């Protein structure tokens, strides 16, 4: 019988420690719990109410949250972005150099969205006919602003597509 009484007290104690000592988020923060991105809607002593991206409410006991890893976008520094793309293996090195220059120019022209430090790398050779490449760069925001992050990523991807078209870089499959 003492175990039954200890459990609610233990939960209360863990919840108090979680809310007042650990305090990993505030109302309005965008967090990831169990791999699901959610917005903190309400914090109570024993529970936290989250909203999923589709506005579904999720109630978590704070004693349970205390044992879970929680990512908090709001408290994170400016966050990184990766855009992967493939080009023809036969693309001359001079065109790849121009591609890198054009990407750098795009980032420099949009300093309100992107940090200037970036890297364009070849990740691997695919099927002996494609170079799989990636652009690694940083946003000037955290992913707290999820919609803005997605808009920026879309614009960056379309800019890369436009640059590839302008340089007449493509890839074709082996016959």
UniProtKB/TrEMBL annotation:
Q: Which residues form the Mechanosensitive ion channel MscS domain?
A: 8-73
Q: Which Pfam families match?
A: MS_channel_2nd (PF00924)
Report the GO molecular function annotations.
Answer: mechanosensitive monoatomic ion channel activity
* InterPro entries to which the protein is assigned, alphabetical: LSM_dom_sf, MscS-like_plants/fungi, MscS_beta-dom_sf, MscS_channel_2nd
Location within or outside the cell:
Membrane
Coarse class of the protein's main subcellular location: membrane
Q: Where is the signal peptide?
A: none
Q: Which domain of life is it from?
A: Eukaryota
GO annotation (BP), single: detection of mechanical stimulus
Bilayer disposition of the protein:
Multi-pass membrane protein
UniProt GO cellular component terms = plasma membrane
> What are the UniProt keywords, alphabetically?
Ion channel, Ion transport, Membrane, Transmembrane, Transmembrane helix, Transport
Which Gene3D superfamilies does the entry mention?
2.30.30.60
The entry's family comment says: Belongs to the MscS (TC 1.A.23) family.
Q: What is this protein called?
A: Mechanosensitive ion channel MscS domain-containing protein
